[in-house]
Amino acid sequence: MGCACSGQKEVKDENTFFKIKNPQTSNSSNRTERSANTYSSNDENAFIALHDFKGTNDNDLSFKKGDKLKILQESGEWWLAKSLLTEEEGFVPSNYVARADTLEVEKWFFKDLSRRETERLLQAPGNKPGSFLVRESETSKGSYSLSVRDHDHDHGDVVKHYKIRCLDKGGYYISPSKTFPSLQELVKYYTRTADGLCVRLYAPCKPKAPQQPWAQDEWEIPRETLKMVKKLGAGQFGEVWMGFYKNTQKVAIKTLKEGTMEPEAFLQEANLMKQLQHDRLVRLHAVVTREPILIVTEFMINGCLLDFLKTDEGKKLKMNKLIDMSAQIAEGMAYIEKKNYIHRDLRAANILVSETLHCKIADFGLARIIENEYTAQEGAKFPIKWTAPEAINYGTFTSNQMSGPLGSC
């Protein structure tokens, strides 16, 4: 069946978290806004700011949530934009803006989200029964799904999914007995009554905090741009700190103890991490190449998995969540194997946990690119506790051995 979304002007409905499209006020609203700042929601380059953004470079364009922008050029993670309020131009992070007069400006709409990732997000801390989101269907192009968190006395917190079907002449429904002209109207209705759903819609799912893309072409950075705030831990080769880049962007900073490792080897780790880009791997931002050398990565608020599982929150995790966290780690390791790399130091201390309990693999200090297998040089150091027995006996490492440490971490 065909699925047509309305392109009419959106007007906020008081005391709600969604917007209702009002066809009767569309033309007058457009004329008023156009005369004020030459803004038209029908312009395909018209965007709305979803979050506040404070630029760190001279060529960045700062803005406030709700500001109207015109995108001049879309390229990579940073887009060239013009503020329709100040008329200034500059670069903005692409994940901080959404095209105007589309579902992407709705708090409850999550465009590119898989069913499994939806369940992870809705079951993350901060959400409760009745938390919900609408996403694009994975199986039916042009259709949508409503995902709702519920509590089952037998299974605890669960996520239930409802297919939103489209009418040929426009409109949407979950049950054929009740149809709606727009998704906004559908959401509004089910916030007032469950009417067949597992629970009445309570509030939009809390999204992951947006991660500001790293500044363009800032790979080797001056030491003065970093501020170390809190020591998070120490290892064989150095320390890890929480800090800020240019006093605005929170980051993790890894230092190298002088004399414990050749600077070239430390920088090799940085170059390795830079090549590996995946949602389940800690992202490398930049390096300071003069001694003492620093590596700057994204900051994960819950620290390493080993410590997190010992906290009150970690001890309360149920088996299904622990299994899911293991699956996330496996996703990252599968990517590493696909790229013909071996981590060689996979353990709970090298798995970092985000605010929404997403896991990412960190510390590639012992990683090594391989063609098929890698034989350690005589005297090479590697973690005995998490190393496969055949690797210890023969000094040979292959990607097939990575399942051993995954089970013991």
Please supply descriptive tags for the structure shown above:
409 residues; SHC Adaptor Protein; Phosphorylase Kinase, domain 1; single chain; disordered N terminus; alpha+beta; seven-stranded mixed β-sheet; five-stranded antiparallel β-sheet
Explain briefly what this protein structure is.
The chain has 409 residues and is an alpha+beta fold. The chain is built from nine helices and 25 strands.
Question: What's the main sheet like?
Answer: 7 strands, mixed
Would you tell me the structural class of the helices and strands? alpha+beta
CATH topology descriptor of the largest domain: Transferase(Phosphotransferase), domain 1
Looking at the overall shape, the CATH architecture of the largest domain is Orthogonal Bundle
The tally of beta strands, per DSSP, is: 25
Binned strand content = 25-35%
Label the overall shape: globular
Give the helix tally. 9
Residue-averaged pLDDT: 78
Please report the distance between the alpha carbons of the first and last residues: 48 Å
Number of domains: 4
Helix content: 10-25%
CATH class of the largest domain: Mainly Alpha
Per CATH, the superfamily of the largest domain is Transferase(Phosphotransferase) domain 1
Which value, in Å, is the CA radius of gyration?
A: 25 Å
Low-confidence residue ranges = 1-41, 369-377
Keywords: ATP-binding, Cell membrane, Kinase, Lipoprotein, Membrane, Myristate, Nucleotide-binding, Phosphoprotein, SH2 domain, SH3 domain, Transferase, Tyrosine-protein kinase, Ubl conjugation
Enzyme class: transferase
GO molecular function: ATP binding; non-membrane spanning protein tyrosine kinase activity
Binding site for ATP: 254
